[in-house]
Design goal:
binds 4'-deoxy-4'-aminopyridoxal-5'-phosphate, alpha+beta, D-amino Acid Aminotransferase, Chain A, domain 1, 2 domains, 7-stranded antiparallel sheet, 9-stranded mixed sheet, globular, 16 strands, D-amino Acid Aminotransferase, Chain A, domain 2
Length: 296
């Protein structure tokens, strides 16, 4: 039998099948908390420091006090990976408001709950990477910047789940949400990029999109490959008429988009620039300088 993985819960390691938190935890009752999805490749946790920074930034916005330091959080992630003897992993780091009463007042929660799950899951399948995804603009608007905006990576993901349901119902691989003004925002857990006239363009944070860590990698990588990288509002028409389009995200990495609402993007096949970026990205994720070593 395979050895069971351990999950870190508040400083203790519990076997996966027994790892539990209280039903009074406000993360469960109200989606009150923040999280990160992180990956380890070949013994290095890719952009771990950046993920930890974003976690504490998200927590700061919702006034959630994380009871351990950034370095202790990094150590907790690395230690969990070591316990599980993992070199390649999908990591879910969750900090909830903690145990409170049935009222929503966060002041009732005395201490945040910290969870680190390190697992091996199948993410975007190779077929989608090779052939590209069919996406759908959905009726679900991205929560705006003065609401539960995805600028904060909170546990409140109903906005994305509603969008995903639409994509599923219409037989598409992924949903794309617009903002209240009709500008393109992002996918359910991915940022969106288009290529137009040699420029690689992604929507700004004002559309309620998360500042993705993969998005940042692509924005920095693109100029090195000779492309202009821009953060700019884009419309559905910009997407329909783009030369290429793709999603970015920790789980998705870079995935071509070949069709949106039945409109073919470019020639309906993954474009050359997207493929080039995918190749470069493969190098970046395997570069030890980009990550934190799990084993010394
Ligand atoms: N947008 C949302 C809403 C997400 O949940 C994610 C996944 N974290 C992304 C974009 C992509 O961000 P990253 O590249 O940091 O994974």
């Amino acid at each position: 039998m395979e050895k069971e993985l351990f999950v870190y819960v508040d400083g203790k390691f519990q076997p996966k099948s027994e790892a539990k938190i209280s039903v009074y935890d406000h993360g469960l009752l109200y989606g009150d908390g923040v999280f990160e999805g992180i990956r380890a490749y070949n013994g290095y946790v890719f952009k771990l420091k950046e993920h930890i920074e974003r976690l504490y930034r998200s927590a700061g916005v919702i006034l959630l006090d994380i009871p351990i330091s950034r370095q202790e959080m990094i150590d907790a992630v690395v230690e969990t990976l070591r316990r599980n003897n993992l070199r390649d992993s999908y990591i879910r780091l969750v900090v909830t408001r903690g145990v409170g009463d049935l009222g929503l007042d966060p002041r009732k929660c005395r201490k945040a709950t910290i969870i680190v799950i390190t697992d091996v899951i199948r993410l975007t399948d190779d077929d989608k990477k090779e052939k590209g995804m069919r996406a759908l603009f959905v009726w679900v608007k991205r929560d705006s910047v003065d609401a539960t905006s995805h600028e904060v990576k909170s546990l409140n993901y109903m906005n994305s789940i509603l969008a995903k349901i639409e994509a599923n119902n219409f037989g598409c691989d992924e949903a794309i949400c617009l903002d209240r003004d009709g500008h393109v925002s992002e996918g359910v857990a991915e940022n969106v990029f288009i290529l137009k006239d040699g420029s690689i363009i992604t929507p700004p944070t004002s559309t309620g999109t998360l500042i993705g860590i993969t998005r940042d990698v692509v924005l920095k990588m693109a100029p090195k490959l000779g492309y202009t990288a821009l953060e700019m509002d884009i419309t559905p028409t910009d997407v329909f008429t783009a030369d290429e389009a793709f999603f970015t995200g920790t789980a998705a990495e870079i995935v071509p988009i070949v069709e949106v609402n039945k409109r073919m993007i470019g020639d309906g096949k993954p474009g050359p620039v997207t493929k080039r970026l995918m190749q470069e990205f493969e190098k970046v994720i395997r570069d030890p300088k980009e990550g934190t070593p799990i084993y010394k």
